[in-house]
Design a protein that fits this description.
The longest helix is centred in the C-terminal third of the chain and has 15 residues, at 205-219. Helix 1 crosses helix 5. The protein starts with 10 loop residues before the first strand and ends with a helix. The strands form four sheets. The protein has an eight-stranded mixed sheet, sandwiched between helices. It has a two-stranded antiparallel sheet with strand order 2-3. A two-stranded antiparallel ribbon has the order 7-8. It is an alpha/beta fold and 220 residues long. 25% of the residues lie in helices and 27% in strands. It has helices spanning 36-47, 75-85, 129-134, 154-165, 205-219, and strands at residues 11-16, 21-24, 27-29, 51-56, 68-71, 90-93, 100-102, 123-125, 143-150, 169-174, 186-187, 189-193, 196-199, 203-204. It has one domain (11-219): Rossmann fold. It binds cytidine-5'-monophosphate. Cytidine-5'-monophosphate (C5P) binds at residues 15, 75, 93-95, 97, 126-130, 146-148.
Amino acid sequence: GPVNGPLSGRHVIVTSGPTHEPIDPVRYIANRSSGAQGTAVAAALRDLGARVSFVTGPADVPAPAGVEVIRVQTAAEMRQAVEKALPADIAVMAAAVADWRVANASDRKIKKDGKGNLPVLEFAENPDILAWVSQLSEGRPELVVGFAAETNDVVGNATAKRARKGADWIVANDVSPATGIMGGTENAITLITADGSEIWPRMPKEQVAQRLADRIARAM
Ligand code: C5P
C-alpha cells in the first residue's frame, strides 16, 4: 500500500474464509464461505496504506498481494494465528469460523466395519475469536469490527451480537436465500456502531470493502 495513505503505520489483522474442522485425516466439516468479502476488505485496507496480517482459512478466492498471508485450517489454528499477529491497531473478523469442531476426530481414516455400525461424531465448541479479541484486557485493538450473517431481524440480531461480543462495529448482512448474497458478488449491509445502524445500498463486495476501509480510516 501507499506509504502516505490514511492508514500508513497502522497494523490491521483481517480474518477471512471458512475453517475446516477435521473428522479424520481425509475428511472435514466446513461451510460455504468463499472468503470474497474478507479478501476485498484486506485489499482495501492495504490500499489505504495499512500493514495487513491476513489470516485465512481455505478460501475459494486467492489472497490479495501485498499483505502478509497466514494460512490456517481450523478455528483453533486461526485463534493462535491471530494471537501471534497481535498487537494490532485494528481487527476485522470476516472469517466464517466453524462454531464446532469434532471432539472425537480420528487420527486414522474411519472405515466401514462391514456390519453397518455407523460412526458417531461428538462436537466441542470452538473459541469465539471475535469475542476474545474484543474483550482483551491488555492490548485490545483500538477498533474491532465483526461481521454478522443474518436471515431475519438483521438490525436487532446484529445489535445484540455487537453488545454480546464487545465489538465496536458489526457489519451485518442479510443472507436470506432470496437476496442471492451468499456466494454472490454483491453485498447489502447494515453497519451497526455505538451510534446506531446505517443501511448501505446493495453494491459489489469490493465497493463494500472500500467504503468500510474509508470509514475505518476516518475513525482512527
Ligand atoms: O456469532 P457469529 O458466528 O454469527 O458471529 C460472527 C462474527 O464473529 C464474525 O465476525 C466472525 O468472524 C466472528 N467469529 C469468530 N470466532 C468464532 C465465531 C465467529 O471470530 N468462533
